[in-house]
Specification:
The protein is α/β, with parallel strands linked by helices. The chain has a single domain, classed as Rossmann fold (3-Layer(aba) Sandwich), CATH 3.40.50. Helices cover about 30% and strands about 20% of the residues. The strands form 2 sheets. The protein has a 7-stranded parallel beta sheet. The radius of gyration is 16 Å and the shape is globular. The mean pLDDT is about 100. Bound molecules: 6-phosphogluconic acid. The site of 6-phosphogluconic acid has 16 residues, from α2 and β4.
């Protein structure tokens, strides 16, 4: 397993541009090699900034988004049209604009009776339409070290399935669906996207030589080929 690579940009704007540019380059390379790459998106502020940059940069990239298969690492279990939905934000920010057509949203409260049924349905979708691995999994990082909707001390951390229902999330809204560590680790590349001073301690704990993924869930995800920490200056201030 290769050591994580750390790339530091001066500010959130250049961080978002760098990540979007790198993703478009990876997708173009994968398609040039004849593959239809599968990626997993994440929620949160810096991810939204990356999505906006993807919309801006994609037209010149040569990426055919109809040949990119889009998944989520996590989603809030709310109504389909709720502003809290990661998928709603991603569609508005770039997926609809770039012409993505293979988009697998996690179920909303309009689609599933409860969060566990939603997780079961998404696990089935990944088994049926997944490629066995993601080209890139993108993850934000919480100040408590959470990634996707895998929170410190939560039983979902030990779930061995593909997707898991999460209730009692310390980050609202309380009910979510998350890919498990087992699923997130089926990735050639894992990219952590982290901005802001309030994440600096979590970044340092995630990259420390020792630590427990139950305390810092970010420690539980690594790419099969590479793990990259895309940070801005403030998020990198404790390493
Ligand atoms: C979610 C996210 C979550 C997020 C982190 C960082 O649905 O809430 O997937 O894991 O990525 O909490 O969010 P910020 O970048 O907004 O701090």
């Amino acid at each position: 397993m290769t050591a994580p690579r750390v790339e530091v940009q001066p500010d959130p704007g250049t961080l978002a541009t760098a990540v979007a540019g790198e993703l478009l380059s990876r997708l173009a390379d994968a398609q040039a090699a004849g593959n239809d790459p599968h990626i997993a998106l994440t929620g949160g502020g810096i991810a939204e900034a990356v999505h906006r940059e993807l919309a801006r940069l994609s037209p010149e990239s040569g990426v055919d988004w109809s040949r990119v298969v889009v998944w989520w690492g996590d989603e809030r279990f709310v109504a389909r049209d709720s502003a809290d939905r990661n998928a709603k934000g991603a569609r508005a920010a770039f997926l609809d604009a770039v012409g993505a057509t293979q988009v697998h949203e996690m179920p909303s409260t309009d689609d599933a009776v409860d969060v566990d049924a939603a997780a079961t349905a998404y696990s089935a979708a990944v088994r049926e339409h997944g490629a066995g691995e993601f080209e890139v999994v993108m993850l934000g990082l919480g100040p408590d070290g959470h990634v996707a909707s895998l929170f410190p001390g939560h039983p979902a951390l030990d779930d061995a399935g593909i997707a898991v229902g999460v209730s009692g999330s310390p980050k609202p809204p309380p009910e979510r669906i998350s890919l498990t560590f087992a699923a997130l680790n089926r990735a050639r590349s894992v990219w952590f996207l982290v901005s802001g001073e309030q994440k600096a301690t979590a970044v340092a704990a995630a990259l420390a030589a020792e630590g427990d993924l139950h305390d810092i869930p970010a420690r539980g995800v690594t790419g099969a080929e590479e793990t990259i920490w895309f940070l801005d200056h403030d998020a990198a201030s404790s390493i």
